[in-house]
Amino acid sequence: MKASQLKQTLGAAEQSCRASGARLTEKRRNVLAVLLRAKTPLSAYEIAEQYGRDYGEPIPAMSVYRMLDFLADENLAHKLNSENKYLACAHIACDHSHETPQFLICSRCSKVREIGIKPEVIAALRDTVEGAGYHLLTSQLELDCLCDECGRSAA
Amino acid sequence: MKASQLKQTLGAAEQSCRASGARLTEKRRNVLAVLLRAKTPLSAYEIAEQYGRDYGEPIPAMSVYRMLDFLADENLAHKLNSENKYLACAHIACDHSHETPQFLICSRCSKVREIGIKPEVIAALRDTVEGAGYHLLTSQLELDCLCDECGRSAA
DNA sequence: CTTGATATGATATAATGTAACATAATAATA
DNA sequence: TATTATTATGTTACATTATATCATATCAAG
């Protein structure tokens, strides 16, 4: 993410936290900034390393885990359960309400696209699940994909 | 899984391996049996422990990982990427060809149901993915659910 | 029966994550 | 402001999941 957009996004995050009565401390904001600048999802330990490089002071991985929990609670970051990695929410700046995210994960270059899947498709999924006697709790999907770029170069 | 069904399933696994020219060794078969008897998915280390209890001889976790790789290659077991756990394929005995599995994971009791999602739903998902410029590689879904039982008792 | 390939054992270590307690910073209130 | 309560962060220890590497054992083919 470019510097100008980064600043704006961090501002939006600030506002969003203020609205929910949460404290976006400097370090939490820095962790979010690391995620926003990253081209791919990062592990907690990778975030800690990058934080050290970006801000000149080391941060314990344990703190990163807690800050990621905070950011996830505030819908500012998401965890990719299938990868054990974390990424910034793609919809911090744009207002449109925080629906459950779906992720397209390029298995070649690890680039991730956060999208919204059509309600009909989710509804159909939910129907199938109910039909099997289960109840869908979250519709966060993590799909194993090839991105456009890798798709072309691999073909 | 009941003993009678277990035997039959292991027989089917044997045949399936013979058909593909793979060797279902005793230990691989035992690991599969551990998974078939388990009520929930198990981690590799849990499998190793259970193997020790069931067969009276310890097995190194590293061996279990290799055997799980083998079983996954043969479509006899699956890995739940979101849980880092493994489970037996639900379709070893029944012939119907091995489609990509989808899993309903009860987040309360960890019970997992392997189902097939309607081709239309998968196709719709695939369309959405293509629309975003990505290409769907596998349609293995791992859905965060409540099972019927837990749904009732939690309500 | 011996050679080559495959399977397993053993050891070390990396990567991810949690638990528990200490200290520091902030907020609320007297 | 001083005091106290709450929240945030640091520190240490350790649990869990996974991979890499090399040695040994077992099986299959000639």
Write the topology of this structure:
Two copies of one chain form a homodimer.
Chain A: H1 3-20, H2 26-37, H3 44-55, H4 61-73, E1 77-80, E2 85-88, E3 102-106, E4 112-115, H5 119-131, E5 135-138, E6 141-146, H6 148-154
Parallel strand pairs in A: 3-6
Antiparallel strand pairs in A: 1-2, 3-4
Chain A binds a DNA duplex (30 and 30 nucleotides) through residues 23, 25, 27-28, 43-45, 59-63, 65-67, 70, 84.
Question: How would you describe this structure to a colleague?
Answer:
The structure is a homodimer of 155-residue chains. With 155 residues, chain A is of the alpha+beta class. Chain A has two domains: 1-94, Arc Repressor Mutant, subunit A; 99-155, Ferric-uptake regulator, C-terminal dimerisarion domain (Dna Ligase, domain 1), CATH 3.30.1490. The first copy, chain A, contains six helices and six strands, in the order ααααββββαββα. Chain A has helices at residues 3-20, 26-37, 44-55, 61-73, 119-131, 148-154; strands spanning 77-80, 85-88, 102-106, 112-115, 135-138, 141-146. In chain A, the strands form two sheets. Chain A has a three-stranded mixed beta sheet with strand order 4-3-6. In chain A, strands 1-2 form a two-stranded antiparallel ribbon. The longest helix of chain A is centred in the N-terminal third of the chain and has 18 residues, at 3-20. The radius of gyration of chain A is 17 Å and the shape is globular. The interface between A and B is medium-sized, with 34 and 33 residues. The first copy, chain A, binds a DNA duplex (30 and 30 nucleotides) through residues 23, 25, 27-28, 43-45, 59-63, 65-67, 70, 84.
